[in-house]
Design brief:
Helix content is 41%, strand content 14%. It contains 5 helices and 6 strands, in the order αβββαααββαβ. It comes from Xenorhabdus poinarii G6.
Length: 165
């Protein structure tokens, strides 16, 4: 993975928001929570992910730099809510009622399952496949599965098998 240098002010903003949200959770549940380990190694179009058993949050450095304030205000609480939901309730649905409760009631942040950031700069090469009714964009991973004979994709509209032009 290509190394991306995260400006120090952004790293501080990430930690400040993380600590603020942890403090809110600590007051609500009357217990303290350790700070999660935060890494900037998330790749692709995913803004962040929570590694529940490792108490770790992975952030996409490129999307963080491109969407600074919105990223910090939305993605940090989103991923921290996953960790807290797991800690407090055990194995639950990833965006279930426990997670939504933490997001909306505790953090006062809309419980959006996905981000709306532009992913143009982090999107991998796209391969255009066709059926009889339209064209489809497949990722390099999907394309490679087709090439290896591991997958075949079918149009949901017309039911025809997709073919590379």
């Amino acid at each position: 993975m290509k190394f991306v240098n995260i400006p120090l002010f952004l790293q501080h903003a990430v930690m400040r928001t993380t600590r603020q949200k942890l403090t809110q959770a600590s007051h609500f549940w009357q217990q303290s929570f350790p700070e999660p380990h935060i890494t900037y190694q998330q790749r692709g179009t995913i803004a962040g992910s929570a590694r529940l058993q490792d108490w770790e949050i992975r952030l996409n450095p490129i999307l963080l730099i491109e969407n600074q304030l919105a990223f910090i205000n939305e993605v940090i609480p989103h991923e921290l809510a996953h960790l807290l939901a797991y800690h407090q309730f055990g194995k639950v649905e990833p965006h279930g009622k426990e997670w939504r409760f933490i997001m909306e009631t505790l953090f006062k942040v809309p419980a959006n399952r996905t981000h709306q950031f532009s992913v143009h700069s982090v999107r991998s090469k796209i391969f255009i496949y066709y059926c009889r009714c339209q064209h489809h964009e497949l990722t390099i991973r999907q394309h490679n599965k087709v090439l290896r004979g591991k997958s075949c994709y079918v149009c949901r509209q017309c039911g025809e098998r997709l073919t590379l032009l």
